[in-house]
Structure formats: C-alpha cells, structure tokens
Amino acid sequence: MTVSVVERTASGRARRLLVLLPGFGDEPGVFTQHLSTLDPDGRWQVVVVRPPLETLDGPAWFRVEEDGPVAADITASVSHLTATCDEALARLDLDPAHLVVAGYSQGGALALAAATDPSSTLRPAALAVLASYLPHRGDDQDPALLAGRPVLVAHGVDDEVVDPLLGRSAARALERAGAEVTWAEVDGGHELRPHLVERLRGWLDGLPAPEVP
Length: 213
Hints:
The protein is an alpha/beta fold and 213 residues long. It has 6 helices and 11 strands. The strands form 3 sheets. It has a 7-stranded mixed beta sheet with strand order 1-3-2-8-9-10-11, sandwiched between helices. A two-stranded antiparallel sheet has the order 4-5. The longest helix is centred in the middle third of the chain and has 22 residues, at 71-92. It is globular.
C-alpha cells in the first residue's frame, strides 16, 4: 500500500506546520531522512506529501510534454496539496499564518504554482523552493500573491538537472513582485544533500514566530 502522507509529530503542542514536497520520482523518504538535521528539536509538525501522479519513473506532481508542464496535472496537484494543508491545519487548530511549505525540484515548482495561483486558497506564511523553478502558466500565475511573504530560493551551483539560472530567474521574478526573497547558492548538484538541507534549516530558524492561537 502506498503511503500518500508521512507525518512527524512535534514535541509538545504543535504550533507550526511544515509541509514538505518531494521532487519528481521521489518518495517522502527524500525528506524524512533529513528531519533530524532540519528540525532536531521537534519544533515543527512536519507533513511530507507524496506526489499523487504515478508515472513509469515514479511519483510526480505533473508530467512535462513538448510544450512544457501539463496544466491539468498542475491544477489537480494544487488541489491535492491545498486539501492536505487544509486538513492538517484544521486538525491541529492552526491557521495559515502558521504554515510553511517547502518543495524540492518539481515539488518546489508545484509549491510556487500553488502559491501564485489566483484560484487557489493555499496561502502559506512562507515558502521555500530548493533546486527548482517557476513553472510558466501565463494568466494562471500571479507572483504578487507572495508579496510581503518570506521566500527562500536555494540552488546547487553544479545542478545538472535544473539550471541554476532558472532558480535565479524565479528569485528575481518573485522579488520584483514584492516577496521577501532570500537567494542562496550552495555547493553540489541536483540532490537534496546537507548543503541544501542546512540552508533550509537556517532560513526556517530565522522566520518570525507567529502568535500562538
């Protein structure tokens, strides 16, 4: 049986929710193996969402064809992510001000697609995208929806799958739209390794704590 969500309970009462999105072909373990580094004190309720679309190469958030990402796949995955976040927030008695979404590779692209989709109700307090890019969907995207919100865009300088220029381009587009962007280049290629994980941890540690509901 395929597990669609892996959840790690916070130490004590959950006051913040961190939703992690693996990349194309990745299982939740790509993130869960790093939780002792990412959140050693258990301050976050962590939910790792498995990409819902099955492909020959493993789970995916969307397929990519000659013309780019399949829009219907992105729409379906945005709805899936939104429902998952809404359920977790309601169960934990938290509101979106306590939600941070972080995605790696295609998971980061899906996180950006969701957060910039005018038709989506998903509005996390902050967003992190690792080794990723901003999927181009024309009128379906409004980067200004992230205005005033902290956004981390981190990329390996030797990324051989997603060109670092795509990460930098996403960072600049979001910054122009008013987001509080942190751009970081780290050593390494297209892997969720310690350099990216530690950069994400440092950024999470620096986020202002929301008021306890």
